[in-house]
Design goal:
CATH class of the largest domain in chain A: Alpha Beta
Helix content of chain A: 10-25%
Radius of gyration of chain A: 24 Å
Number of helices of chain B: 12
Bound molecules: adenosine-5'-triphosphate, magnesium ion
Helix content of chain B: over 70%
CATH architecture of chain B: Orthogonal Bundle
Largest interface: A-B, 26 and 18 residues
Structural class of chain A: alpha+beta
Oligomer: heterodimer
Strand order of the largest sheet of chain B: 1-2
Order of helices and strands of chain B: HEEHHHHHHHHHHH
CATH topology of chain B: MetI-like fold
CATH superfamily of chain B: MetI-like
Structural class of chain B: mainly alpha
């Protein structure tokens, strides 16, 4: 149980920069989910925390202690790998006991801890088996067990659920969250699955090309994305982005698609004509006979709702998610309104969020 | 789905097998059978009279204290060659595995000894260990350590062991390197996070995971030391001094080709054959059981 503090973490592989200064403070017992597209540096960051990779610059503090220069063995962290990385020549019991043996715990204590963890994870009957005699889900539990018995300061998870089938993934996700809350161990969880990220994390770190684009609670990331990358990354179907320019002294947006609409929450800074991006989530779009006409090319009925894809008069792609069967697959056009209260405004040049001010 | 190819009739399959069977029969079963047959015979030195003597050749052999000494030599020699070549190759492979980027060149360099003929390898070693013209030999004598493997039996044994092991290191290295690279990196990282330092990681993770490779190499290297080191010994010491580097295969050769005692030589060949079959069987039965995971 400990806090984690990353400051100015940078990493380059040779000439290739991968992380560009990551700052993060994790409170005791908090579960942080690191989410981002493939190759953005999530695993690298996690491995730096574990000590498997050396940062080019910056410091890592666990429980207030500077561990930047320490070996993985001296950091008192436990990690669950994507492919589980169980020791193939050891039984389940030996796999879980390995780290404890190295720390020289008495045999009785090792038995007790492994027994408890196995009970907790429902793998008590498998202790004598070898990893190759286990199913994917069981291996996953053993990997979890190996981390739990250590009672480490920090849990690190690198996409531990991505090799499981969809149903098991949902089940294990809930289980991991329950366990983590119960044990109260500070955790970093890497995933590229936004549903996993939203449901597991106390806070999210959305990474983009080696930067932490936003660090916030799942709801805040969804409701107030810090830039258009985060906005497009979180949410499904992805947020619609419309080109526009400031108008009426910053109080309204002139859409490329046609109308000029006033902001609901006040004027944005900048001169008229400043290029901006308007974001609106498909689920916030409402049907309105007097609204913009969407030229439909695909309608996906999902039962409780329907997703309609098409293009706006300006030629921009646009999706709307409407309740029930508001559109039918045969429809060629749909008139929609874009309620200003649901808008997200971004600067077109930097992609940063523009708040009223 | 049945993926077996079905031939009509039996002629074609036998025809296809024939070359392989012929080679095995002509070059293995026939000479082996002859050796067994000869081992029960005794010829006079001129090859004129031949007499069936039953197991007498074998009895003589095991009554001969010199033959018992040769068995001892062979045990020491084979065990040492196998241990040395496997240990050295493993060490080199572990070092290479860390720096795998440069390993391509490293690998090529290390495979060379394997491609060198035993006699050439022996000459290379003579240039190093010869007491008066060898670099190492000169250096040792210069330092006041009396070195002459042509007079000192223990030193001679050391030289043939090292030269024989050296030739086998590259072969073992290739297998160990492949074995090391097939160990998932994440498993080693998991061990590091679990608190295991490099030496412990080696003995508790890497070494056990390499055990199928090690076992295979154990069999191959023992067989090599038993049979294939004839050339090295012949070129370096000719079994001397005072038979101190004579091994079973070398003695069989001397008795058969030089002393023309075909009966005894054949009996020795049979002993060798039985020994190597027994050794391999024992290895497969007892060791293999413990190396699979
Ligand atoms: N050992 C390495 N040498 C060189 N480049 C590397 C190395 N490890 C990672 N990289 C590069 O660093 C970048 C980030 O890799 P990383 O594994 O952290 O991505 P990730 O966010 O975990 O992606 P994924 O979701 O696919 O696992 C990638 O562009 C990758 O090619
Ligand atoms: Mg990764």
């Amino acid at each position: 149980m400990a806090t984690l503090e990353l400051s100015g973490i940078e990493k380059s592989f040779g000439q290739t920069p991968v992380l560009h200064g990551i700052d993060l403070r994790v409170a005791d017992g908090e579960m942080i989910v690191i989410v981002g597209a493939s190759g953005c540096g999530k695993s690298t960051l996690l491995r730096i925390v574990a000590g498997l990779e050396t940062a080019t610059a910056g410091t890592v503090r666990i429980g207030g202690r500077d561990v930047t220069a320490l070996e993985p063995a001296d950091r008192d962290v436990a990690m669950v790998f994507q492919n589980y990385a169980l020791y193939p020549h050891m039984s389940v019991f030996q796999n879980m006991a390995y780290g404890l043996k190295i720390r020289g715990l008495p045999t009785a204590e090792i038995r007790r801890r492994v027994g408890e963890a196995a009970e907790l994870l429902g793998i008590g009957a498998l202790l004598e088996r070898r990893p190759r005699q286990l199913s994917g889900g069981q291996r996953q539990r053993v990997a979890m067990g190996r981390a739990i018995v250590r009672e480490p300061k920090l849990f690190l998870f690198d996409e531990p659920l991505s090799n499981l089938d969809a149903k098991l993934r949902v089940q294990m996700r809930a289980e991991i969250r329950r366990l983590q809350k119960r044990l109260g161990v500070t955790s970093l969880f890497v995933t590229h699955d936004q549903v996993e990220a939203m449901t597991l994390g106390d806070r999210l770190v959305v990474m983009h090309q080696g930067h932490a684009a936003q660090v916030a609670t799942p709801m805040e990331v969804w409701a107030r994305p810090a830039d258009n990358y985060v906005a497009g990354f979180i949410g499904s179907p992805a947020m619609n982005f419309l080109e526009a320019a400031l108008a009426e002294g910053g109080a309204a947006a002139a859409l490329k698609a046609g109308p000029t609409i006033r902001f609901a929450d006040g004027p944005r800074p900048g001169a008229d004509g400043r290029r901006i991006i308007l974001g609106i989530r498909p689920e916030h779009v409402v049907p309105d006979p007097a609204g913009l006409v969407l030229d439909l090319d695909l309608v996906e009925p999902l039962g409780s709702e329907t997703v309609a894809h098409g293009t706006l008069p300006g030629g921009e792609a646009f999706a709307a998610k409407l309740p029930g069967a508001a559109v039918s697959p045969g429809d060629r056009a749909l008139a929609v309104a874009l309620p200003p209260a649901a808008w997200h405004v971004f600067d077109a040049a930097s992609g940063r969020r523009l708040d009223p001010g | 789905m049945n993926r077996k190819v079905i031939f009509k009739g039996v002629a074609l399959p036998y025809l296809l097998l024939l070359p392989q069977l012929l080679i095995t029969v002509v070059f293995f079963f026939w000479p082996a059978g002859q050796a067994i047959w000869f081992s029960f015979l005794r010829q006079d030195a001129f090859g004129i009279r031949t007499q069936f003597v039953g197991f007498e050749n074998f009895a003589d052999l095991f009554a001969d204290p010199l033959y018992i000494q040769v068995i001892g030599n062979t045990v020491v020699f084979s065990a040492a060659v196998t241990a040395l070549s496997i240990a050295t190759a493993l060490l080199l492979a572990v070092l290479a595995d860390r720096q795998i980027r440069g390993a391509q060149g490293y690998r090529t360099l290390l495979i060379w000894p394997y491609a060198i003929a035993p006699a050439v390898a022996a000459v290379l070693w003579i240039f190093m260990v010869h007491p008066s013209i060898g670099l190492l030999g000169q250096a040792l004598n210069g330092m006041g350590i009396p070195w002459d493997y042509k007079l000192n039996g223990a030193q001679a044994m050391l030289v043939v062991i090292i030269a024989s092991a050296w030739k086998q290191v590259s072969y073992n290295f290739i297998f160990f390197l492949a074995g090391l690279q097939s160990i998932p990196k994440a498993v080693l990282e998991a061990a590091a996070i679990d608190g295991a330092r490099p030496v412990r990681r080696f003995w508790t993770i890497i070494f056990p995971l390499l055990s199928p490779t090690t076992f295979f190499l154990l069999v191959v290297n023992l067989t090599y030391a038993f049979f294939d080191t004839f050339g090295v010994i012949d070129a370096l010491t000719k079994g001397g001094p005072a038979k101190s580097t004579e091994t079973l295969i070398y003695r069989a050769y001397i008795d058969g080709r030089v002393n023309l005692d075909l009966g005894s030589s054949s009996a020795q060949a049979v002993v060798l054959m039985v020994a190597i079959i027994a050794l391999t069987a024992v290895q497969f039965r007892f060791i293999e059981r413990r190396v699979h995971y």
